[in-house]
Amino acid sequence: AFRKLNHDDVTDEHRKIFSIVSYHFDLTEDEVENSALCSPDGPELLKNFEASKTSVLLFFHQKEKPFLIESSVGIEVPLSLILTDGKNQGINGYCMYFLKSEKTPNLICGRLRARCSEEGSMAATVNSLLKNIYMPSFSIGSDWTKNELKAEKNRNACLDSFKHFNKYIEATEENYKHIVNFQDNGRIDISGVKTFEDCQKFAIFDEKVLLVEQLMADWIRIIQEVIAESSQIRMEADDVGPLHELRYWQYILCRLSSVADFVQSDKFHTVIKILTAAQSRILKLWAEQDRKLTDKINEARDNVKYLQQLEKICQKFYENDM
């Protein structure tokens, strides 16, 4: 039922990979080869990997819940092993990965378990890998000290930078939890309004315009609250360094940027067009808030940029315990 498999394209390097995969997943080499060639884009991935045009191959194995692959006659056939580059499919299961660089012919392979989920974020995933895998490996590694006069100092500096970056990702993930969300009040549906002509027709009905104005008033109130938060005067202790201040302004910038993203959305622009067609007075209030929002975003960006440079200077004092 599968498409005709072209085994002639399989090279010695491919067979070496198939042998490793078959050993780890308790399969025969023929089973691995057939699964690789039957996988979507499998033959092309193998060919590009051989030519170093593709740098990664991923073999996912799911014995309990096989992958369903469409055959040449349009029937879905189950496979317990699938070959992919991981760019398009969200796949769960045990994985054997193979890496290759254009600069070196050496293969790097390893095994891991992957689980795709809509929960969490990319920042949390990266942070987990850095914190639980790479950091412990770097901490116990012994290759640092070979043929280096200042190996220990360089090692400590690298680990300190690594920890600093790890904390930055944690702060980013925490800030993401506080982005500003704009909800509909559920009283008016503007999904059918696409063009300016649609806005003009919509603006004929006073009761509809009133509901849009109420929606805009709710959004403006939220924006005013975020702007007011960024304008608060803060009292800090004398021993608080620039890192604490940097994290605060990164939090503020994250909040303001999420507002700016919403203001640039199609939905917000549609509301503005409707209110413009209706010559609504609330646009004057929005123009004032728009100016304030722009000023606050620029201020937050400048503060973050300045504090990042200051933190780089102070980091040297932290590392030397001065």
From TrEMBL:
Residues 212-320 form the Dynein heavy chain tail domain. GO terms for cellular component: axonemal dynein complex. GO terms for molecular function: dynein intermediate chain binding; dynein light intermediate chain binding. It comes from the Eukaryota. InterPro entries: DHC, Dynein_heavy_tail. GO terms for biological process: microtubule-based movement. Belongs to the dynein heavy chain family. This is Dynein heavy chain 5, axonemal. It comes from Araneus ventricosus (Orbweaver spider).
